[in-house]
Write a structure and sequence with these properties.
Alpha-Beta Plaits, single chain, alpha+beta, elongated
């Protein structure tokens, strides 16, 4: 896994700004094994300009939390379509806590440290 500097910071890479997204995958009833089999056979099946950063499973094996990097949420659509017969997706743009508080400070003058 490659290091991610400044989680959530739009980065300029090959003329495209990238954002981070937390993707919550909820496996449809009984599909956990099928998801694993497809992944083993087909791989992640990511479209161009979308990068996998890392993932975590809940202890029961019903949900996967994936950190993805992409220029926009829409760039994830081809990937979610390849899996939506087995998985329901929730996609949220995210930033690090430090970036959130710094942005709030710039826009409102609120300083967390004072």
């Amino acid at each position: 896994m490659r290091a991610v500097r400044g989680l959530g910071t739009p980065r300029r890479n090959a003329q495209v700004y990238h954002m981070l997204f937390m993707v919550v995958e909820r496996f449809k009833d009984g599909s956990t094994r099928l998801v694993g089999e497809r992944f083993k056979r087909e791989g992640r099946m990511l479209p161009e300009r979308v990068s996998y950063v890392g993932s975590w499973m809940d202890a029961a094996g019903n949900r996967c939390f994936q950190l993805m990097e992409a220029p926009s949420a829409e760039a994830l659509t081809p990937w979610t379509r390849r899996w939506d017969d087995l998985v329901d997706f929730e996609i949220m743009p995210i930033v690090s806590g430090a970036e959130f508080w710094a942005s709030l400070s710039r826009s409102t003058g609120f300083d967390l440290l004072s």
